[in-house]
Amino acid sequence: MMHEPAELDFDAALERLEQIAVALEMDDLELDQSLALFEEGVALLRLAESRLGGAEQRVRQMIEEGGRARFESLPELG
């Protein structure tokens, strides 16, 4: 069940990474199969890291925007 990494959401990428790890731990894979799974795993790891980075950036932006909105809504002192 090979998917293009860009087609997968974060949870699906993690699930596929788990499947790959289990498959790589088996002793019955040919070298070519192991290498293909390893390459797929690296691509999925990069995708997951990218998605996490994007989510982190969105959270930071929301915090910054929320902080400004709260500050702007405070009554002026003085």
Structural key phrases:
78 residues; mainly alpha; Helix Hairpins; 2 helices; 0% strand
Description of the structure:
- The chain has one domain: Orthogonal Bundle (Helix Hairpins).
- The protein is mostly helical and 78 residues long.
- Helix 1 packs antiparallel against helix 2 (31-73).
- The protein is built from two helices and no strands.
Q: In the CATH classification, which architecture applies?
A: Orthogonal Bundle
Percent helix, as a range, is over 70%
How many strands?
0
CATH class bucket? Mainly Alpha
The CATH topology annotation reads as Helix Hairpins
SSE topology string:
HH
- Domains, number: 1
The backbone outline, from C-alpha atoms, is rod-shaped
Category by helix and strand content: mainly alpha
Number of helices: 2
Biggest sheet character = none
What's the Cα radius of gyration? Answer: 21 Å
What portion of residues belong to β-strands? under 5%
Distance linking N and C termini: 66 Å
Low-confidence stretches: none
* Average pLDDT score: 84
